[in-house]
Amino acid sequence: MVTGELKSQVDKIWETFWTGGVSNPLTVIEQFTYLLFLRRLDETQNLEEKKANMIGGQVKAPLYQPQHQLFRWHSFKDRDPQSMFALFTQPQPEADNLTVFEHMKQVGNQAGVFAQYMKGATFMIPTPKLLDQVVQMIDKIQMDDRDTKGDLYEYLLSKIASAGTNGQFRTPRHIIKMMVEMMQPNREDTICDPACGTAGFLVASGEYIYEHHPDWLHDQTFRDHFNSGMFTGIEFDSTMLRIAAMNLQLHAVDKPNLIGLDALGESNASSREQFSLILANPPFKGSLDYDGVESSLLKTVKTKKTELLFIALILRMLKVGGRSAVIIPDGVLFGSSNAHKQLRQTLVEKQRLEAIISMPSGVFKPYAGVSTAVVIFTKTNNGGTDNVWFYDMQADGYSLDDKRSPIKNDDIPDIIQRFKNRDKEADRKRTEQSFMVPFDEIKKNDWDLSINRYKEVVYEQMEYDSPAKIIAEIEQLDKERSQALQMLKELLG
């Protein structure tokens, strides 16, 4: 949980960046991340040096060679602003003609997964004063444990206040957590997000394990799986990849598999039946050219719509028996095109569609006002859909305007509880917030999955007076008005 002190520290750093001339939120986060990484590198080597001193040995594969000691956080943070800025911007002859930034980009695999995605990273802090201010403030942040590091970065990411391109925007953390809680990651899972952005779903899955199954981490085999093979993220944006890598590392996932490519393109064609759990909020704004889409996806659903193609991709990437929770725009549930119907039929008839959670349109404000739903299904390739569970979410704990202020009404705990106990949902009426719809009824309705197709709304019967009575009341009012006017005239003489 973000403490008041931590929040205040991050807010001050954020404000300092903005007043110092760095106003793009992603640029602020990226530059903040680089400095956090530099501090982390120094702390990592400090720890290795202490270990070596205790046993009287040498540091194996040091992050900083003797000539690079001036690039360490504890070394440059106490320099005057001009001298510090020069280390970042001017090659240092005594240090292999590198800068702090260039050295950071070359530290290699021993520095963790973040270092692997530094190609293309650019130092964009414009002045010595701003660099010094930010370094001093970051140095004062206590980052001694996993929770603090994770909370710090989560709060930092929450400050992204504008939508990205191609339909990208940050999924609200409470929605991510809801989906993870519903899917309940297990110790054998291989978890993927094919449009991972800042890795919110992967981080939340790791946090779920820390919270609900800390004993699993006592087992070395599981720890190895957790740190290296359990989490995979795919993202074509290199900036997002770096942010995702740092986010995962600060949440104690040391070596996640992060892949920098277009998930829908030919470069991802080999990704088949690899994962047991896929959580995603893929981009669903716009369309692609057919020649930019991997051919097997078009065989599943002939369309240019990204939201449909991503579901086809998820089906391809899941192992048989694998499950998925994915956010989609409402149009996928009732769209009348052949591609829409084909995809819905595939989910219901060939796989096991388990649940549709309809969310209000304000969930993604201020980024977007589109209505969305969470679709949950299991890949079987052999059907298995008996009944589909529908839930009509009315509130998510925040106001549905652009401010998204906390409110008391929150359906999320109820959603999680009811989903986990769907065996008790069969007798619910269609007028309730959740209910079951059988396979045959969905098929009869041309595979329509919109909740409004099946939900029954009870309207309160209103009784009105007869027209004659209403006319009589109007006439009486007119009479009284005329009398009042006459009295007024008499008073005025």
Key terms:
Rossmann fold; 2 domains; Ferritin; alpha/beta; single chain; nine-stranded mixed sheet; two-stranded antiparallel sheet; 493 residues; 19 helices; 13% strand
Structural commentary:
The chain has 493 residues and is an alpha/beta fold. It has two domains: 4-151, N6 adenine-specific DNA methyltransferase, N-terminal domain (Ferritin); 166-454, Rossmann fold, CATH 3.40.50.150. It is 44% helix and 13% strand. It contains 19 helices and eleven strands. It has helices spanning 4-19, 25-55, 73-76, 81-89, 100-104, 128-139, 146-158, 173-183, 200-212, 220-229, 238-250, 295-300, 306-317, 331-334, 338-350, 412-420, 439-444, 451-454, 467-491; strands spanning 191-193, 231-234, 257-259, 275-280, 318-329, 352-359, 372-378, 387-392, 396-398, 406-410, 434-438. The strands form two sheets. A nine-stranded mixed β-sheet has the order 3-2-1-4-5-7-6-8-11, sandwiched between helices. It has a two-stranded antiparallel ribbon with strand order 9-10. A hairpin with a 7-residue loop joins β9 and β10. α2 crosses α6, α2 (25-55) packs across α11 and α8 (173-183) crosses α9 (200-212).
